[in-house]
## 1
Amino acid sequence: MEFRPLTLDDAAAAYQATATALLLPSFTPAQLERRLEAWSNGHSWGAFDRGRLVGHARALDLETTVPGGVRLPTAGVTSVGVLPTHTRRGVLRSMLAGLLEDARRRGAVLASLRASEATIYGRFGFGVAGMCATYELAGGSRLRPGARPVTHTVRLLEPQEVRAAIPALHEEVATGHVGAVGRPAHWWDNSLGEFDDPGRSLTRWVAVSVDEHGRTDGYVDVALDDHRPSPGVARVRRLVIGDLFAGSDGAYRALWRHVLEVDLVASVIAPRRPVDERLRWLLEDPRAMRTVQVIDEQWLRLLDVDAALAARRYAAVGASVVVEVRDEQLPANAGCFRIGPDHAARSTDPVDVRLDVTELGALYLGGVRAADLAATGRLEERRAGAAAALDALLAVGAAPWCGSFF
Ligand SMILES: CC(C)(COP(=O)(O)OP(=O)(O)OC[C@H]1O[C@@H](n2cnc3c(N)ncnc32)[C@H](O)[C@@H]1OP(=O)(O)O)[C@@H](O)C(=O)NCCC(=O)NCCS
């Protein structure tokens, strides 16, 4: 087997192999052409068996917002697949090693991915740093009286306005959250492309919130899912929320009110939302919002532990903690670091907590508690109370959340 970085000449085979591995329909020539146009937005590694491409893994150049607001260069690992004839013989391991070492050399501090299965990536240093939830709201659910927005209005965009308005608005209102990533141009080509086609009949719309000064500060992307349960039976209409990002509390209220006030729908489904979604506290009947699923969202791997620890902010608590990190795949990361309220740096002081880079990835955004990892044997506490002290330093307000799938 041969493992190497891929070029544009390999791209079509790489995408088709990924589709086969992920049990997705194969790409049409038009779909493939769009992907090839966006090839330069990432870096791919492939595996070849006697010249035939049998595995593919790709890294997009992204940025992740970390506690304190710094946006760190991130390898967004995606399109991972190995043909079913070649699984479980180390293909993924070899491709990931090349891909992540390359990404680190190019200056990526983090790697992030969304996993098809939760049993694959821990061994490669990825920890679950953020969860997300799917909610279902009964049609006719209402906001509490008194929670109604008085200052914001909602405007439906004309389809031809969407492409010009939404990417910049997302950048403005969505990327400040801990765990968020900015979305590259090709992403928007894929997600909003249908709005550009004047001949296309759409069952999807985008609405924006406008504050009392006329400033647009949030948007919601809504798709209609419409089917007949059986012939002759009335249609069941559901709204599916693609994106809902708000830059203010008023925008948040106004956008949710808009969604809930759409007539003729049986329910609203909101997938991949924050686990601490505030909507519940705005509803007249909090039980009208049902949590359908809570699942891991972002898997994070620190590619450069020194840079990652130095970049994020820590809470202003008294104590500091010395953490020893193990990293078999990227040994330059291994060593001891003192994490304190002001900064984190290498240290030769006695170790308080010993952990693997996988667990450090889970803790890094502040959404997972070291005390829980210690209690479940995923982290070794060498000084009593050190895990709790580490939690106090790493704590953030809202739960880390991205809301972008790649
Ligand atoms: C997941 C996938 C990429 C793994 O590729 P692979 O070449 O078989 O993986 P490797 O042989 O390099 O396995 C490396 C390790 O991961 C383990 N592993 C791989 N896939 C696994 C899975 N689906 N579940 C649990 N463990 C898995 C292997 O057992 C091996 O463990 P070890 O190092 O302890 O021996 C491949 O099975 C695949 O394409 N699956 C379908 C598509 C998919 O899920 N892609 C991932 C999208 S995020």
## 2
Amino acid sequence: MGEIATLRCVTCGVEYDPTRTEYTCPSCGPRRGTLEVLYDYDRLRRTLHPSSFAETGLPSMWRYEALLPIEDRRFIQPLRVGWTPLYAFPELARELRLAALHVKDDGQNPTASYKDRASSIVVIKAQEKRKGVVTCASTGNAASSLAGFAASTALETVIFVPERAPEAKVAQLLVYGARVFLVRGSYDVAYDLAAEAATAFGWYNRSAAVNPYLVEGKKTGALEIAEQLAWNPPHVVLVGVGDGSVVSGLCKGFDELVRLGWLEHAPRVIGVQAEGSAAIARASAAYRGRAVAIEDGEARTVADSICVGKPRDIVKAVTYVARNGGEFVTVSDAEILDAIVTLARRTGVFAEPAGAASFAGLRKLAAAGTLEGKTAAVVVSGNGLKDVASPRAIIGAPIVVEPSLKEIERHL
Ligand SMILES: Cc1ncc(COP(=O)(O)O)c(C=O)c1O
Ligand SMILES: [Zn+2]
């Protein structure tokens, strides 16, 4: 168990006692005052070594329990979360003029997205805190993941998703037994409603950014990429960005490995946003090392999971990526859809639109020549079966035939 030393505000730096503070810094507010979980790294450096994780024998993110903020391991769910495959595709790497290309398939998590890493932690925290109800606003994946991970516990789940969330994600919620509110409005509107309801009814809030423990789960993808490559991580790691928590988690994970002395440098973390939902990329371009300028707007993209006009983890995302030496890039919806199909046809990994954004960003940077000779990993953060409608427009249709060989021949 990773004993938390403190919770520190990302804006003012004030430290809070984790036994007394649940969500965000009261002085800086819920948007600028997100908290980061810090551990006693000197102690961890003395007690852990790179082989400690393999020695647990656990094929899940729980191999990193020593770096995770839980107190009572009895609450760890039976579902296997994390330790997802990292595949190498040398042929595709050569075509993109990379030295190596790895695909981290997080669509293979229990509810089929990267969000399971965070939900697993929060469901444990909710039980440690003796909560009865957990709630969450979500574009879909965080919610279905919360519902799935709470399913084997006594917790009730109340979910707020935008009315236009893809059908498969809503179906997942209902199957897992969550109480589901389809909110008339965008994800940004659903988010505020969930926060109000959590305060009014005393529910534990798993919505992005306000809950400091989410990023801890989300950092485990970075720990895995490093360990799966024998502590020689790639030059760059790319991931799709909506609220900014996953990209922050990857930065934090690599940063902790550097602090512990197991990596010399962190890989550059590259956040990929959709052109129509790029508030974090804009704030990052304007960032000069002082306050993060926040400009919200309407968001529109085919990648529903990263369709966020008011990103809640913008301060962490911009400051962590700047410290990491990474960057943000934007891609069009057409590039995202094309990335789904190319990735599926060349690797067999089927990504939902937000999950393929990472590969779209990689292709864009590779085409510009900035990654020549480098090693890269793309995180596929959600499974393609979550949203089969989006790629349909560009994949053609099957051929309907009478059951006769002659007719088949006619089509060949
Ligand atoms: C599949 C997928 N990819 C990427 C993201 C982006 O994560 P974040 O909102 O933390 O930036 C999400 C968030 O919902 C997601 O579901
Ligand atoms: Zn503060």
## 3
Amino acid sequence: MSNNTYTDLVKQTFYFPQEGFHVEDGYLQFNGLDIKSLITKYGTPLKISYLPKIGMQINKAKDMFAKAFKKHKYEGDYFYCYCTKSSHFSFVVEEALKHNIHLETSYAYDIEIINKLYEKKKINKDIFIICNGYKQRSYTSRIAKLLNTGFKNVVPVLDNKEELDAYKRSVKVPFKLGIRVAAEEEPTFPFYTSRLGVRAKDILEFYVDNIEGYEDKFQLKMLHIFLNKGIKDDIYYWSELNKVVNLYCQLKKICPELDSINIGGGFPIKHSLGFEYDYQFMVNEIVGNIKKACKKAKVKMPHIYTEFGSYTVGESMAHIYSVIGQKNQNDRETWYMIDSSFITTLPDTWGIGERFLMLPVNKWENDYQRVVLGGITCDSHDYYDSEEHINEVFLPKVHSNGETEKDKEPLYVGFFHTGAYQDQISGYGGIKHCLIPSPKHVIVERDRNGKLVDWLYAKEQTSQSMLKILGYIK
Ligand SMILES: Cc1ncc(COP(=O)(O)O)c(C=O)c1O
């Protein structure tokens, strides 16, 4: 018997099985879901949203902050906000809201989502809505309307100094304010300082000139920082975090209302079976660092807010493709052509070289080989050729002319933890490169009795819908 099977490869490279992934009767299971049965029912290409994962992630983070607060005897509260931009879908946001969270918004239209959630009684007016972004009038006026109609915990986070004028004009009730501190970018980035937020060295003066003395109208409550590169145990992260904590300590002495630090998003997720990240260690360090600085400066510790996007929703989703053909274009390169496109369905693989956790769904007992996955657009960049842990892609050989039913099946390839940003960046529906349609989308969730149920959220996009956008059909 061969010891070059895909199973052998995985077991030699990683600990396997592991949380969320195991193989049963030769088929990969994702969080206990039998992907093959969903493929049989719905076909490929297929997007699957497994909603229970969202609550699991939220509760895991809350638990870690609770443990860190206990460990450090931290005197403040933790607020988990979900940043809607990572996936605005109602089924995602409503699932997250079942777990007692708050929300973060990025643009004017997010506020329309807030209005709808309120109408549907999914939120009440006590929820914290953290409003980020470089705001146009359409956004500030909607924020003002929320405040004027009694959403008392809407916190516009000033991206620039001028933004405050818009609220001064339009908000008729006392309200809370945040300021985003512009982060220094990592040395590898083309810019020194983020374009988002207010320069750290300008903030004290801005407070004294524009906010102090108006406390009956608006109060500075929150300092906000978000680091592009995420929450990582490196010098860059700790020095940027310390910068905002030190600013908090300085400001707190003249601005007693200030009581919160928002560290934004940036918790990583698993993009490879080899992923190792000690979440609890990082939370302990963040909480410990904030406490230490506050003790030293003799100021009250702030409440801590996070706005995890990828972490909340990323791991809840999978994209499943069939390999529809194999092409050997020379003696060394084997292409596996998929029944969709990487550019249109997983745009981060193409735009920023993102790697997702990739595994075959079937044929784990076949020998493996090095391949390049190709999409069916005409674009030469529509390919996937390296994984997070290795600059290559290995998949089982197809043997499509074999004897058994299993042999006759196509190879199915899954990309996992794809739930954040991909639909948002690709544009859901709409026209697509080479008019490759958006795949069908299935939701898996628990019903009232806790039983898992699956249902079709969206069919594969039709030619009619594209022709309409293109002006061929009225
Ligand atoms: C202000 C802000 N908060 C939160 C997030 C979410 O980040 P992530 O998805 O990495 O958690 C972003 C992402 O761009 C952001 O800009």
## 4
Amino acid sequence: MDEVATGVYALSGLKMGRSYLIEDEDGLTLIDTSSPSASQGILDAIGAIGRSPDDLRTIVATHYHFDHTGNVAALVERTGATFCAHADDAPYIDGRVMWLPMQGIAGKFVDSGKRHYALRVDRELRTGDSVAAAGGMEVVHAPGHTPGSIALHARGRRLLFAGDAFMHLAGLMLPPSMSSHDLVEARRSVARLAELDFDIALPGHGRPIVGRANEKLADWSRRWLA
Ligand SMILES: [Zn+2]
Ligand SMILES: [Zn+2]
């Protein structure tokens, strides 16, 4: 676990998909939950910073995919946290809409826990909404990878939680086409995110981008995605 900014932890050693834990005086917020069977690892991370599971107030999923929502059910049950996701991904999370065929393969992961398809979204987010963590995080709709993909912009802290709007594995990259709904729209979302003011970008896969992250994103977007 790395503290990437004061009170902001990038969790490691979980399953697929990176999660971030934000510590505020009045409680904890978790951005994404990794793939199924990682809930104990997340609870261990909460313990490692000296907090208890009951301190987890809010869980935000940046989008519906199993590697971001995989432990929501277990964590909500254990902590009573409020679960938030964008309104356009809520139908995929609560089971009203089937996933893309590719996520049918991923569906194997969740087959043992069918409740994954019937998670209740406690709070549906939309652009302009804010989540009370890290001094206030603005919800930024960044569709393409999924219809309801979001980023969270902690303006005052100059942080961007990017979900799978882009990845940072072998350099910056778009999310895989096979798991994305609309890559043309995904490109546009990256260009819009690059206009925001942030110094650190925290992607759902790969390493945090630390230092002038918005400029790096804008540069990559202009060069490769134009
Ligand atoms: Zn992912
Ligand atoms: Zn995804």
